[in-house]
Structure formats: structure tokens, C-alpha cells
Write a structure and sequence with these properties.
The chain is an alpha+beta fold. The chain contains five helices and eight strands; from the N terminus they run αβββααβαββββα.
Length: about 180
């Protein structure tokens, strides 16, 4: 055999060996994102009453779901909410927000105070069809301004929730979603 043929055959052998090694390499494991933690979770259809208060502003609004499955202001002969602003989004937001992160699993009173949860900016009361209630406190904005501290009143776990979630709910109290014909 001549030198040229030997070099070509050696090259083919090296290429086949490399291909064999590459094809036998185990696949890289998939990196799965951690499932998102929900601070609470209820089915939208189980919500029967929503109440939001802004204690520092002395403002409060509440809504009830009537048998026709629409939401109304919780007052005698309260009007139906403006569906352009309410849509299905508000009950969805309140059925269980996803936590950005867990801050403290068992916050101390000192921590709760530093997070603004001893005198919350917002209080939420959710009443379910079975008459159970979920009470939630939202404290101060985090130093980076992107999230707010939040906790269920019956728990010492403190989470953060995206600032837009808070702002949408705050606006419901500051600018209630009255229908155009019933603006207050």
C-alpha cells in the first residue's frame, strides 16, 4: 500500500471513531424550571366575595358574585362592575398569585415590621362559596421597586409578588370599576 492510501484510511478511521464517540455520549439532562409557588390557590368559580382595603388611605371596596355569575359592588342594589375593566382577569388575579420568591418561612415580628406587614398597605379578604375566608396582607415595596411583600394572615411565611399585581388591585379601590352609567 502506498502512503497516500494509508493516510486516507487512517483519516476515515479517525472520523468514524470520533463519530462513534459523539453518538454514544449520553444526552445532557434537561434543566427543569422549579414549579412556581402560589401564595394561595383557589378555583375562580369558588370565589363569592372580594374585599380590598387601603388602610392608610381610608379606602375600601368590595364585590360579590351573584347567581347570574356576574360581579357586583357589595352594596344594596350595587351596580354590576364595568366588564371592560373587570373582565375575567380580576378574579383570576385573586385566585392565587404566583410568588416571585419566599423571603422568610417563619418571619419574626421584627421582620414583619420591616416588611411593612404590621401596618399593611393593602388588606384583601376573599370569601369562598363554602364561606371559608382567605385574609391577605400586602406590605411595603421591596428596595428594588419590582415587588411587594405579601403574606396570608394565618401564616408567618412572607413572599414577594410582582408590583403590577399590587397596582392593578390598588387601582380597583382608587378608581372603582363602576359601569359608565353608574359612575360615583
Amino acid at each position: 500500500m502506498n502512503l497516500r492510501t494509508t493516510a486516507v484510511m487512517a483519516g476515515i478511521l479517525v472520523a468514524l471513531g470520533t463519530l462513534f464517540l459523539i453518538s454514544r455520549r449520553p444526552p445532557e439532562p434537561e434543566t427543569r424550571a422549579e414549579p412556581r409557588t402560589f401564595i394561595w390557590s383557589v378555583e375562580i368559580e369558588n370565589l363569592s366575595r372580594l374585599a380590598i382595603s387601603l388602610p392608610a388611605r381610608g379606602r375600601h371596596e368590595a364585590w360579590v358574585k351573584r347567581p347570574d355569575r356576574y360581579w357586583y359592588f357589595d352594596q344594596p342594589d350595587g351596580p354590576k362592575v364595568d366588564m371592560q375593566r373587570w373582565g375575567g382577569g380580576i378574579p383570576l388575579l385573586l385566585s392565587g398569585p404566583g410568588a416571585e420568591r419566599l423571603i422568610a418561612a417563619a418571619a419574626t415580628d421584627k421582620q414583619l415590621e420591616s416588611y411593612g406587614l404590621k401596618a399593611p398597605r393593602m388588606k384583601i379578604e376573599l370569601t369562598l362559596k363554602n364561606e371559608d375566608t382567605i385574609l391577605v396582607d400586602i406590605g411595603d415595596r421591596t428596595p428594588d421597586g419590582q415587588t411587594y411583600y405579601i403574606k396570608k394572615r394565618d401564616s408567618q411565611a412572607v413572599y414577594t409578588v410582582d408590583h403590577t399585581w399590587y397596582e392593578v388591585l390598588e387601582r380597583l379601590v382608587r378608581e372603582p370599576p363602576y359601569p359608565a352609567t353608574a359612575k360615583q
